[in-house]
Amino acid sequence: MEVGSKVFVVDELHGWLQATLLNIRSEAQEAEVIIEADDNLGVAGGEVRRVDLTHPDLKAWHEGYGDTSRDKTVAAATPLPLQNLHLPVFGVEDLCSLGFLHPPALLFNLRKRFLAKQPYTYSGEICISVNPYEMLEDLYCESIKETYALATTAAELAPHIYAISASAYRGLTGGLNGGLGQNQSILVSGESGAGKTEVCKQLMSFLAFIAEVTDRGEKDVAAKGTNNAKSTVTKVLESNPLLESFGNAQTVKNDNSSRFGKFTQLQFRYSSMQRPSLVGSECITYLLEKSRVAHHSRGERTFHIFYQLLAAPETIKAKVMLSGKKVTNFNYTMCDHGGSDTTVIEGVSDANRFTATADALSLIGVNTEEQEELWGLLAGILYLGEIHFVGEEGASGSEEARIKDMDMGDIGALRRAAALLLGRLGEGLSDEDGTTALEQALCYRSVKTRHENYVVPMTHAQAVDARDALAKELYARIFTWLVGRINASTCQDTDNKVQSAPSSSMCMLGLLDIFGFESFDVNRFEQLCINFCNERLQQRYVADVFKSVQQEYEEEGITWEFVEFSDNAPVLELIEGRMGLITILNEECMLAKGTDTAFTSKLTALHAEHPHLQRDRLNPLDFMVHHYAGPVKYTAAGFVARNRDTLLNDLSEVLETSRKPLIQALFPCDQSRKGSHGTVTPPITDSAEKKGTTSDTNSELKMYGNKYAISVPIRARRNIAAETVATKFKRQLQDLMETVAATRVQYIRCIKPNQGKCAGVMEPRMVLNQLRYAGVLEAIRISRSAYPNRIPHSDFVQRFGLLAPHLTRKLREGDLAMKTTRLLQKLLPLTSVRTFAPSNTPDVTTGNLICTRPKWEIGRTAVYFTKGTLEGLEEARLHILNRQATTVQRYIRGVRQAQAFRRLRAHTITLQSAVRARRQRVSFCRTRAQVTEVQAIWRRKQAAKVVHARRVNSCATKLQTAIRRYLQLTRFRKMRAGMVRLQAHSRRHQALSTYKLMLSEAKEQAKLENQLEALKRRLEEESEARRKAEEKLSEAGQNPSGSVQKNTNCESELEAATPGQGGDVLDKSISTLSEEQGQLLEQLRRKVLTDRGKYLHLKEVMETYRKEVEGLRAENQRVKDAHAAAGLSFTALHQHASNLQRVNKRLMREREQAVEEVRRLESESIRSLQRVREEIRQQQEKLESQMRRAREELAGKIQMYELEVQMRIKQDRTMETMINLVQKRVGIVDPELIQELVEMRYTCHMDVRDNVASRSSLIGGISSSALTGALEDGSAMSRASKLFSAFGALVKGEGHG
Is Cytoplasm among this UniProt entry's keywords (predicted)? Predict the structure, then answer.
């Protein structure tokens, strides 16, 4: 190999790394390389590393090329695998198109596509699917489905599982020519977590879609038939989630891992246009991991359906005795608290999954009653796990198992399990009998001899095993029953049963979702069965790959007899041969005391010389089998028990006596062994039965009407040696291989990129191991065994034309194949590499294909090379490229030297110019400094003059400022003195008005007092006159003539004083009061207007003050402007006289003083303005308070006035009433008294009018004297009222007399 070649080197962490070759030391078997940077792997690059050429991975790489691995010359020529250069950014879509195809090239191409969100890659006819651990919606949308559905060939589009399923569907139709095609199969394999289940979902969804798309144009299908077809498709698609609930579980590697194998036969019916339509499906299951019911590892879960049931609604749980129960309450769901606490699988909670499971059961025809019975059986399995045993010493001294009684917890679990599984045991039997029977079957076993039956107590371990065996067998039969119901709902009638070859009406497309090759730290019986299945599939896979290679070589016109491949027939013979592993295990299971140790001893003894079997000398129970994917070490502990997989007859008999319909279907009564309690299941005729295919129990499910039953094989009933798990699995695997062999098979290999289930992360070594287990590397080895390297004609001419440039120029025109041939004849002579010993005939099975092989052959589209030939051409090409590169480098170095000389000369000239320029600049700077000094002296003198003038101006400005301040202050003081005088005058005027008002009130009070005294005197006089009149009357009784005359005079006087006159006086007094009230309101209105004028005057005064303040502000602004102008002048002087420092400092001090003075004046003006504002505010508040008091006093006066007027009017009316009464009712009254009363009323009326007039003149306020006078007036009126009352009584007495 040439130095500089791009190679791959082994790395312990990343598997392989890209590197560049630096040196090879053949004698030391070492190579020195420099590692290239790889951001995806986190490799920085630049590291120089020594590579051991004898590394095991490099040896495995050499051996991977097949028959040329024995050629030491070729191996030495290419000690390291070469890189494929100039690949697309996302890698190639088909690995077979790589020029150098080896494990590192394959790994790096897969990683490129994986990181580019392209999980699918072809390897010939195989599709490799790398699980992205995220949903790539763009790859599964409706538009993508339609694109692949309508494509004619898979080569038109990018790799996709849709292309595989579309190719299989086209195979059903017979291609583009129409007619009947061939039945198809798609085999999906990979380890747990590789995405097999999701791939199968997508395949089934796409097949249903493509069947619908291709059938859109047909018009002969009735609407009812279309609806039935859609219902069937829905059942087929919904059966997958249903099987996931009962057959999938969470493991360490995968949250939704399938714990069984599944072969789904999608049934298609040819339509009138020979287009297959999906009409049904039939599911065949293999090897359910029922041991997971009772045991699972830490961090894992048992089957999903148990957790879904515990998350179901309480109404459903209450019907099966699970009310309030959780996952942590059951041993089978926790496994000694080592289970997983996950409640969400793939983003869906267990509760939501339970709802979907119930809907799916309803869809396939399981009604509500049957569902409740199914939930009860699952709950019974959970309660079986809650039954615990304890070993006690029996009567014979041996250990006997008893159910452990912990606060009746285990007894309660036993009763619930019996009630859920057995129900009523028959007529006359109670639930207690069922509990006792179940307890007896769990703790004792029956031993039958020819003459007697014995009941033998079981040990603690045997009782636990019997309990777990019952739970596992019960769940396995439930799973079998479910598969049968699904098939009964989706499968077509037996008349239309799909045959191995398509008929005129039906065809089949099978999807095999099978477990991949497994190799763990501890491998048991299940791993042996799984790997045995993979060995059979690998044999079929290798044969199909061989056929594809043969077809490729025939299409290219290349002799294909040179292809060789390895065969795994010896391993299969070791496992399933006549005296193979399965046969020995079955023989050991037939023995009553067969053990695992005896099995391993017989196996190693019979096959001690077998190359694929190796015995472990340290542990007699361990042995190793060399599978196609690598050696696997098995532990034989438990092989015999797991292979037997038997259930005690006592437990079977107990379940056969159950009254539960579903239990009766799962455990039918054996007619040859009728119990005393149960009934025999009626026979089922072949015409009435409908078969549901399964492989997980020793029986077959049959359904008739609404009844279900398990028909137990006759061999299991009559023979001692029942069919074992391995035998049954071998038989079913053989049937599967026969079915697959009758179809055209396509392969999808699923790869798990990392253990952490993280998106965007790929672990190289893990991926390489899976590629080896999946047989991809073997397929590549087969496809490249004869001619491992190939390159298209155009690429070959373009890449290696430089090795013969003259020939290439001559062959510019012409056929491309002819150009390639001429070029190869020029570069490589047509000689053989190696000749094998001839054999009789090529054997496809064993791969003994031997003949002479040339170094190269030309196909129709590409050139095929033997190992080492293309590497030699690459080495020659690299040598020529190195020589041409050396020539180019020579010319480039010459050009660079010439350019360097030109740059040096240009730099020298530039340096000289810089030196001359510096000298001239120094001279210029010196001259400029001298001129600047002279200019500075002259500017200093000019600046001194300007400073002096500025200083004088500044002093004048200060003087003017002081004078203006004094004038403004003087004006302000005068204004303030005037305001004080004005305020004093206003206060004096107000006080004088108040004094006058108080004086008038005092006078009125005195006048009223005098009137009251006069009235008092007159009343006294009247009383005296009355007394005298009475005396005279008494005396007149003695002189009647005189009395009559006096009465006549009194009547005439009373007639003279008519009542009409009193009414006129009252009307006049009322009108007078109204006029006085209007005058009083007018005076009040005038007073308010006067106060408002005063307020407006004060507002004008405030506006005057505000204008004066604005003037002061403008004056202050002029001072600030002057200060700013002075500042600008000082700045200009400072710029022009910077060298005069002392003068500048002095000017700065003066400027600071001026600024301080301006600030002081500004603060004084602001303070003065604030004082003026404060005084104005105080005056305004005072005026407002005075106006408020005046309004309050005025309101009080008005109220008192109204009350007094009403009282006076009432008194006046009372007096008028009294006078009228006296005139009407008194016949003889003194006329003088009546006249006095009338005068007194008039006087009171006039007093009221005068009082109203005086009250209306009061504006300034009400005094205490006025209030006192009003009270006294009230007392006087009360006295007058008393006097009138006495007078009225007197008159009343006289009237009566």
Answer: no
